[in-house]
Amino acid sequence: MSSAILVTGGAGYVGSHTVMTLLECSDTSEYEIVVIDSLTNAYRSEGEKKPEPLKRIEEMTGKNIHFYETDIRDKEGLNRIFSSHNIECVIHFAALKAVGESVEKPLEYYQANISGTCTLFEAMRKHGVHKLVYSSSCTVYGEPEQLPLDEEHPTGRGLASPYGRSKYFCEEIMKDICTSDAKWMIVSLRYFNPVGAHKSGRIGEDPSGLPNNLMPFISQVAVGRLKELLVFGNDYPTIDGTGVRDYIHVQDLAEGHVKAIQLFKQSGFSGFHAVNLGTGTGYSVLQMISAFEKASGRKIPYKIVGRRAGDIAANYADVSLSQRLLGWRATRTLDDMCRDTWAWQSSNPQGFKR
Question: Is residue 163 flagged as an active site residue?
Answer without folding.
Answer: yes
